[in-house]
Amino acid sequence: MKNNAGFTLIEMLVVLLIITVLLIVALPNITENNNTIRTKGCEAFTLTAEAQIESYFMKTGAFPLSLETLEDEGYLKQSTCPNGEIPNYDSSTGEITSSVLQP
């Protein structure tokens, strides 16, 4: 009597087929969640930058010249969104806008 303790080729193919189906189902969800996370990160950055612009204005009496000024002064750790987008900043009004927040 033979004792075959290993997997047959058919069993291995079935396992690979199941793994492939799971990846096909999961991959679009992972990509969509990644985009959502990047968008939420930019929204959070823009709101944080707004608060730091106000803080800078209260301390100095003037709006910062750029977001890089806030970064240099220690108000922000970076001057861009986590997704790499550079928000629009108007130093005359202190307003910051991002394409992520626009309807």
UniProtKB/TrEMBL annotation:
UniProt keyword annotations, A-Z: Cell membrane, Competence, Membrane, Methylation, Transmembrane, Transmembrane helix, Transport
Keyword Hydrolase attributed: no
Gene3D superfamilies membership: Glycoprotein, Type 4 Pilin (3.30.700.10)
UniProt region (Disordered), positions on chain: 81-103
Modified residue annotations for N-methylphenylalanine: F7
Propeptide: 1-6
Residue intervals passing through the bilayer: 6-30
Annotated signal peptide: none
Source taxon at top rank: Bacteria
Membrane topology, record value: Single-pass membrane protein
Protein name: ComG operon protein 3
Source species of the chain: Salimicrobium jeotgali
High-level lineage: Bacteria, Bacillati, Bacillota, Bacilli, Bacillales
